[in-house]
Amino acid sequence: MNRLKILREEKNLTKTELATLLNVKSQSIGQYERGERDLSTEKLIRFANFFGVTTDYLLGVSNTRLSDSADLNNLLHIPVLGKIPAGMPVLAVENILKYLPISPDMFSITEEQDLFFLKVDGESMNNVVANGSYVLVKKQDYAENGNIVVALVNNNDEATLKRYKIIDNQFIMLEPDSSFTEFEPIIINLKNQNFRIIGKVIGNYKEW
Q: Cα–Cα distance between 117 and 78 in angstroms, integer?
């Protein structure tokens, strides 16, 4: 499907970026472009709406394009932090690995401010966030019971991704959610242990 490739390149998008925006596997983009795989009706409509063209144009059966259905100027570019320093994550240039363009519709967000991605390294939350995927984090120092958070523990030297559970006024628990049984909850005594929430996870995706 050469027109898909043409439309993608007109927008200066890589296959991975397009796959991320449309929530499909990046390898599938290449298969669609080479004609090795047909688009389902649902995906055909999704791709056509994204590029602002008719489905017939995308399929190559018509030369009539329909514009104004999609506007890539509305994309949000969220920084991926290459590391978390010992303290509040800093959105400084030296800490940014790259930017990921996402559609606001993916996570029902309207602005880039105070948002960043982190790449998950580990299996302690693999029931909800796969190892190697990205979590979208909103910077804030509070959370509600049951939220998945990025928090600093052990004298602010160690960042962890866990589910936040309130036990009582003195104790909270950072709970793993994993298919591996070796991961245990972290119990925090708020009276004598340093603990700080640095962000709440509001979404995630895996880069194929």
A: 7
